Every structure is written in C-alpha cells, then in structure tokens.
Amino acid sequence: MPRSLRIEFPGAFYHVMARGNRRETIFHDDDDRRFFLATLSEACAMTGWRVHAWVLMGNHYHLFIQTPEANLVAGMSWLQNTVTRRYNVRHMAWGRLFGDRYKAVLVEGADFYHYRTLVDYIHLNPVRARLVVPKKGQSVLDYPWSSVAGGWALPPGKRPKWLAAEEGLMRFDLPDTVAGRRRMVERLDRRAVEEEIKTCGMPVVQEDVDVRCSHLRRGWYWGSQEFAGKLRKLSEKLMKERKRSSRAYRKTPQVAAHGEEQAKRWLADGLKAAGLMAKDLSALKGSDLRKLALAELLWKQTTVSQEWIAEKLSMRSAANVSQQLRRFDRARANAKLPMELQNLLKEAWDAQT
C-alpha cells in the first residue's frame, strides 16, 4: 500500500509523534533524552524549524513544529535516522528504534484555539501518564522533559534558540516575564487538578466533527473546516505533480532546499577561507584536514547526503566520507587549520547551540 502524501508548504505547523518499535522504550535514561534534544537542536539548525512545544515520554515523543520552509520530510528523515544511529552506538544495539512511520498532523497554527489546545495537550501529557500527580502537590514544572521546564518557564537567555516560547506565551496573552511564565505554569497546574486524568488537556470534540479528519491524534489535520479545504486543494495539486513524475516530486524543494542551499553557501565560504578553489580538491587526499572539517560541518549541520559531500569535496565515495568522518577529531584538527577557516567553522557550529 502506498504511503499517504506528506503535505509540505512554507510556514506549515505540524504535530509530530513517533513511538518506539513495538512500542518499546526509546528513552532509557536522562542521557538518552539529552542525546535526543541535542540531535533535535542540530535538525533545527539545518532546517530552520521552530519548535513550539515538545515532550519526551518513555516510548514516544511529541513535537509541535513550524517549518518556515517546506522541509518536514527531509528534516524528520535526518532526525530519526540520526537518533537511531546514535542510540544503537550508545546501547550496542542494532536495527530499528522507531516503529511505524512517524505521524504528522497538520495544524492551523495561526488560529489561537488550535494552537493553544495543542500546546496544552503536549504539556499535560505527563499528567495523563501519571508521571505528574497533582493530588500529591506535584506541578507540570516537576517533569523535566517537556518544553515547560525545558524552556517556557525559563528566561529567554537560558532557552534553546529553536524554541518559540516567547511567541507561545503571546498566544496565551501572557508576557515573557517572570510573572507571565509563572501564570502559564499555574494555569496548566489548575487544569491538571480540575480535569480527569485520562482526558486532561484534551479538547472536547463536537459531535458534528469527524475525528478521523480533525483530531489531535487520530486525524490528518487539526484545524477549522476552512483550513481543511485549503489543505485538500494543496494535496490535489501535489498528487498531480507526483503522478506526472515521481522522480521530479522527490527533487522538489519539499525535499532538501534549505539543506542544500546552506551547504552550498558553507562550501563556497569554507573553500575561500581555506585558500582553496574547487579545482584544487581532486589533487588533495580524502584525509586532508580542510576537506574533513568542511565535510563534518556539511554532514552534521545540513540535510545533504554523503554522496553529495563526496562529489563536491572530491572524496571518492559516500563510504569514504563516512569512514573519514568516523576517524576525524575536530578538536585536534582545528589548530592545524587556517585561522580564517577556524573562525568560519566556529561561527557555523556556534549557530546551532
């Protein structure tokens, strides 16, 4: 059975969910959670994503993502594959980490009601899972692995750059101040106390709404009927494009526009900083530190493939790129690079933190 079409467009909002294979645990300890968040940070730097809310549970995660460019598929492919590789290395495991295809529900993010309900649904997930027990005096702030404790309740300077907490607070008519952030937490705690545990944070669905369509978890979108109409027209257009040429569809900007354009800019700037020209690369060994420093940056901070890197840096093959990067020690190599290249790389790496 063919997979359903992913609808991508600039500025789209998504509720993304993924579970462990066979619903098995994907976060065994806090280090697993930190690794995931670090990888998410890298994905955001590559794609330009803005994350409005997130929560990490034992065997699944929820993300509320905004994609300024049409690149959900490319970004999620990189994120889940990279998390899986790093998990397998850390736990000496093999094979799939995640189960079925991740779910991505399109969200009418510009509408306050649908935005607020999704943010609360995500932030109150630990209450529904009984990881936070209001009757024992616990607060949503006591759960460290959601964007409440991980960002919304923190001052701007202590948040990840990719977390849109200030914008989120504004959507709740709250200022990004100590008092405003406290009121956000208090409001969530009131809901946790007043609502039934199983349905805490879940919006009441009207009888005339088909939950197979508009629903936070089971539907394919979360928004108004007008929003659904716009999405259907867009999906029809995308289906026509796919039928005309599936190969052409895979090469559209939906796949990797942001990543490749960023990679091209860094490659051009990096070669200039290294005192090299593209024609010089074929005469250099694959182990040349200038090549490897640029290859690592392109691989870890954009969505381009190792085949792309091998071609652009004259490194023979994707396998050669992979092998060389496994051996590459950035800290040791850095002092041997031209100062201008060192500065460019530092700015690029600092931009992701």
What report would you give on this structure?
The protein has 353 residues and is an alpha+beta fold. It has two domains: 221 residues, Transposase IS200-like (Alpha-Beta Plaits), CATH 3.30.70.1290; 96 residues. 50% of the residues lie in helices and 8% in strands. A five-stranded mixed β-sheet has the order 2-3-1-4-5, sandwiched between helices. β2 and β3 form a beta hairpin. α1 runs antiparallel to α2 and α11 runs parallel beside α15. It is globular, with a radius of gyration of 22 Å. About 4% of the residues have low confidence.
Task: Supply database-style keywords.
single chain; 353 residues; alpha+beta; Alpha-Beta Plaits; 2 domains; five-stranded mixed sheet; globular
Overall CATH architecture of the largest domain: 2-Layer Sandwich
CATH fold naming of the largest domain? Alpha-Beta Plaits
Task: Write down how many β-strands occur, each being a DSSP E stretch of 2 or more residues.
Answer: 5
Backbone CA Rg: 22 Å
Instruction: Supply the CATH class of the largest domain.
Output: Alpha Beta
- Compute the separation of the termini in Å: 40 Å
Q: Give the helices and strands as they follow along the chain.
A: EHEEHEHHHHHEHHHHHHHH
Pick out the low-confidence regions. 245-257
For the biggest β-sheet, the strand order reads 2-3-1-4-5
Number of helical segments with 4 or more residues: 15
- What global shape is seen? globular
Largest sheet: 5 strands, mixed
| Count of folded domains | 2
Specify the helix fraction band.
Answer: 40-55%
